[in-house]
Structure formats: C-alpha cells, structure tokens
Amino acid sequence: MKTYKLAPKRVQFVYPKANKEANMLLIEAIKDGSLDGMKFLPPLIVHKDNGIDLFFNGK
C-alpha cells in the first residue's frame, strides 16, 4: 500500500462462520493520507452456525 501512497484507516476481518478462521480482510485506505488513526473494526461473520446467510435473510 505504501508503494501506491495509500494509508490504511479501517481494518476488519471477515469470518465465514463464528467458529472458523477469517478468510478475508477488508481494508479502507486514503490516498496520500496520514499513517495515524488506523482502527480495527469488530469481526464480520457472514453465516450463522446453522448455514443461514446473514446478509440475505436465508433466501
């Protein structure tokens, strides 16, 4: 990111289920921004343990 002059601001790990390891990472960055002020957001869990997709109400 440094090569492209991007400063990370928010980082969030994405978990497929609560009992699994994170398989994605979301990073919000600002071009030519300060390196101060990076925040780690709470984890984002995509599916409930019963397999229902949390974003589409199980449809």
Describe the model.
- The protein is an all-beta fold and about 60 residues long.
- About 0% of the residues lie in helices and about 35% in strands.
- Strands 1, 2, 3 and 4 form a 4-stranded mixed β-sheet that branches.
- Strand 1 and strand 2 (about 25-30) form a beta hairpin.
- It is elongated.
- The model has no long low-confidence stretch (mean pLDDT about 85).
- This is Methyltransferase small.
- Keywords: Methyltransferase, Transferase.
Q: Which outline best applies?
A: elongated
Span from first to last CA?
37 Å
Instruction: Please indicate the count of domains.
Output: 1
The total beta strand count reads: 4
Instruction: Please give the radius of gyration in angstroms.
Output: 15 Å
Which whole number gives the mean pLDDT?
A: 87
User: Strand-and-helix sequence, N→C?
Assistant: EEEE
Give unreliable regions as ranges.
none
Which percent range fits the helix content? under 10%
Strand content: 35-45%
Give a short account of the largest sheet. 4 strands, mixed
Structural class: mainly beta
How large is the count of helical segments?
0
